[in-house]
Amino acid sequence: MAIRVGDKVPELLGYDQDGKEVKMSDYKGRKVALYFYPKDNTSGCTAEACSLRDGYEALQAAGYEVIGVSKDSAKSHQGFIAKQELPFRLIADTDTTLQQEFGVWAEKKLYGRSYMGTLRTTFIIDENGVVTHIIGPKEVKTKDHANQILNL
């Protein structure tokens, strides 16, 4: 069952690139842009992460914290963060538990082949842990994602 606008998100989101728990209570009083992306170090995912990196100060000034989620390992996330100088945490959802809970782990098709993968989606969560907006896979503008969030 996918999380929808108006739903409260789970307290424990997962574990970040350093193996530390990521809990919603860590962000009490702040809005969270929880973005799901397919894979570290791919062109679209790098463009999206860099947009959020470049807009990070403006997002923080607007009361947001940014958290990324993909199926990649903590080690992969550490390399991605270092290479792209990302100032935010990345959750290593290697077993896709969080992606399934949010409804973004789904069947995809490429060149006629079906496979399971992550639907690029961002959930905007308010100060009380409730989803207020969802930017879906067909709506995310990877190169301008920070502005997309700021203009909600």
Task: Describe what you observe in this structure.
The protein is α/β, with parallel strands linked by helices. It has a single domain (32-150), classed as Glutaredoxin. It contains five helices and nine strands; from the N terminus they run βββααβαβαββββα. The strands form three sheets. It has a five-stranded mixed β-sheet. Strands 1-2 form a two-stranded antiparallel ribbon. A two-stranded antiparallel sheet has the order 6-7. β6 (105-110) and β7 form a beta hairpin. The protein is globular, with a radius of gyration of 14 Å. The model has no long low-confidence stretch (mean pLDDT 97).
Q: SSE order in H/E notation?
A: EEEHHEHEHEEEEH
Rg, rounded, reads: 14 Å
Q: Taking all residues together, what is the mean pLDDT?
A: 97
As residue ranges, the low-confidence spans are: none
Tell me the strand order in the biggest sheet.
5-4-3-8-9
Identify the CATH class. Alpha Beta
Structural class: alpha/beta
What is the domain total for the residues?
A: 1
Q: Which percent range describes the beta-strand content?
A: 25-35%
Question: Distance between termini?
Answer: 25 Å
The largest pleated sheet is described as: 5 strands, mixed
Write the CATH homologous superfamily: Glutaredoxin
